[in-house]
Every structure is written in C-alpha cells, then in structure tokens.
Amino acid sequence: xxxxxxxxxxxxxxxxxxxxxxxxxxxxxxxxxxxxxxxxxxxxxxxxxxxxxxxxxxxxxxxxxxxxxxxxxxxxxxxxxxxxxxxxxxxxxxxxxxxxxxxxxxxxxxxxxxxxxxxxxxxxxxxxxxxxxxxxxxxxxxxxxxxxxxxxxxxxxxxxxxxxxxxxxxxxxxxxxxxxxxxxxxxxxxxxxxxxxxxxxxxxxxxxxxxxxxxxxxxxxxxxxxxxxxxxxxxxxxxxxxxxxxxxxxxxxxxxxxxxxxxxxxxxxxxxxxxxxxxxxxxxxxxxxxxxxxxxxxxxxxxxxxxxxxxxxxxxxxxxxxxxxxxxxxxxxxxxxxxxxxxxxxxxxxxxxxxxxxxxxxx
Length: 363
Known about the structure:
Its EC number is 2.4.-.-. Helix content is 38%, strand content 14%.
C-alpha cells in the first residue's frame, strides 16, 4: 500500500465514456485503474466524457461533452464530428483550471488524454503529473510530451511504443497494462473461435473472418463498431456465413465468451501499442493466434499458448489457430498470464511511481 491515501485526478481521453461495455482497450484500462485505486483507499476524481462511471464525486468541470454524430453511419474512431473539439477543448481547459485552483487538495494528475492540452498545463497546475502514452507517436502530442519538464514522468505501455516515441525525441519508461484476473476467469474452452475489440480497419477483423473460414470454425465477434462504413462493407456480408456478431459486451459476458472459445484471433494491421486482448484471453485459459506486430510479441512473451504469424497472413493465422485449439493446458495458460499481468501487482508499482512524483523526485 502507498505511504498514504492520495487524491488523484485521472484524465481520460476525449472520445468515449469510461463505462461498461468498454469502447476499447484504453477505456477498459482507465476503468480498471480508477476502480483499483479506489479499492486501495485513494480518492479518485475522474475527468472524462459525460456518461462515464465513477464521476459521482467529481466536480462538474470534470464532465466533458459527449461525442455526438449527426449521422451515426459516418461515425469513426479516427475523426470527430464537426464542432466537437470546439466544445471539448474549452471544457478540458476548465477541468485543468479547476485542478490549478485546488492544487492544495489534489496530490497528483494521472494523464491518459491523447491530446497535448494537459501536458501544456503541467507547469501551471501546481500538481505533479504522470502521463501514459497509449498510441504510436501522434504529431500533435510529440512536442508537448518531449518537453524537459516531463522527463521521468512519461510512461509507455510497451518497449515497442517507448522506442517509437524515442525516435521522436520523447523518453518514456515502460509500464505495461494490466488485467483484473478476478473478472477474466478461467473458462472451459469450446469449438468456436473468438475475436474481440474495436471494430475498425486497423484491427483487421476482416482477416480474422477469412482465417476462421479456412478452419471451418465459426468466428464469434464482440466489440463496438468504431467505423460504420468499414463494418458494413467488410464484416456484415459474412455474418451468418461462418461469423456471428454479438455486439459490445460487458466484462462478465465477454469473459464468458472468450473463456468458452477454442482460440482467440488477434489481427492488428498496424503497430499495435500493447495488445490488451492477448493478456485478457490468456487469463481465461484461451490460447491466442496473433499477428506479430508492435507490442504483441512483448505481451505474448514465451507463452506456449500464443503463436505469432506474419501480419496479414490469413492462412498462417488459420493454421496457428487450428494447432492451438487442439493443444495446451488452460490452467497453466491462465496462471502464467496472471503472474505477468495482474492488476494487483501493477498497483504496487503504480503507487511507487505516484509517491515519487508526489515527493518531487524523478521517477
């Protein structure tokens, strides 16, 4: 446990509420962190899009405007609807100004925003800030994150992501994401394959559909549609023909789905910063066939229940999934994942970081 309970302002990204069913891995990670910190006795003030959980004690300034698309058929995760940032950024400014005005009662800012604004405010807040990088280098964020005043207080979710940012002059230490093993329970396995996550082009679910067709197994897909045109063109035509779409699922239902599957397919078509779905699947005992890109290999480690194949190769993915579906010890798979990615273990590391930052030390 930390030396004393702290008051921590957590700044979430500007796009989706922090609630179940989670919009994506980043939102799930922030949700878990807030819940974990509260369970360990800290007071957490969550600055997030309205409709988020855990905001009952937060000031009104911490409720950011929701993203509203005039036509949901045009919704994507890579753009904002017209006029949204003109509302969201002044709201975030108000939240940061609240922190500045109440610096005496807030110990630390835990920043997960994908926007430079919190970083540019850091020296004015009077409160130490720790920032986590969850994405490949974003041009708008590079200059702010690389400023000398943030040195030692910037973290990346994988060594791969840290190396990418380092090429742009941003030094970040590595703190991998974690999972709540009490919610990702051991499952019995099954015959079907599973794919879960954000349904957007860079996550490659269409390649998972093709790989599943090659195995003759049904692919069950769960997640939020983050790019409607992509889903309509590349996924919907295959539904009912070897693929089922179950929609966004809450954590209990999702854990049951994943744990009741023969193998999880993880198919990023970009340099995946971390690959939280790999750790989540392994924690249920379900093996993983995945594309070897970005931080995926780090999450896989030496686990025998993971097979990595070249990015985009549906045939190799199908062969890997079929092999894994017939081999492996589910209990051992889960035990190894929990030992590496336990939220409880990560909590102790995080509190050490917070204590050092709060004391004004380099972390």
